[in-house]
Amino acid sequence: MLENCQRYHMVLGLSALTILTILVLIIESRYAADGPRRREQQFLIENNSTCWRHEPYTVVQECHPCSEFDIVSRSLGVCIHTHYKELLRCKSGEIVTKSCDRVALIEQRNFIKFESACFVLGVLSYLVGYARDRVLSRRTYMKIERQLNRVQ
């Protein structure tokens, strides 16, 4: 079926799919950026300060997974909802444990791994298709050459 498509149509279709993919990624990233802020208000803060909401703070420990003990025993209330926690130090000196979503860096790393795997698979598919085309072309040339040699 692809043999019947003109190159112009294939490039046009591929461009349309690329543009659509980029639009979906932009829209998804905008909604994903709004999501954690909305969910953050739903988290229970058990025996924990909210100084990070109204004071400047520094991050002592980046967002990381809670231990299995904290999740199962529910000893740390911020680990119940997302299973991730972050340690902050407010300007007043108070250290606060805050619930957070999955680490953006991990998500970005997974996305880059996925894109790399897709790229490698695409390159391998192209090489296999190119090699197959060369083999078929060579067979066709040999067949034509044999037919021309019979005629003479």
UniProtKB/TrEMBL annotation:
PANTHER family: JTB PROTEIN-RELATED, PROTEIN JTB. This is Protein JTB. It is found in: Cytoplasm, Cytoskeleton, Microtubule organizing center, Centrosome; Cytoplasm, Cytoskeleton, Spindle; Membrane; Mitochondrion. Gene3D superfamilies: 3.30.720.220. Its main location: cytoplasm. The gene is JTBR. GO terms for biological process: mitotic cytokinesis. The keyword Amino-acid biosynthesis does not apply. It comes from Drosophila pseudoobscura pseudoobscura. The keyword Transmembrane applies.
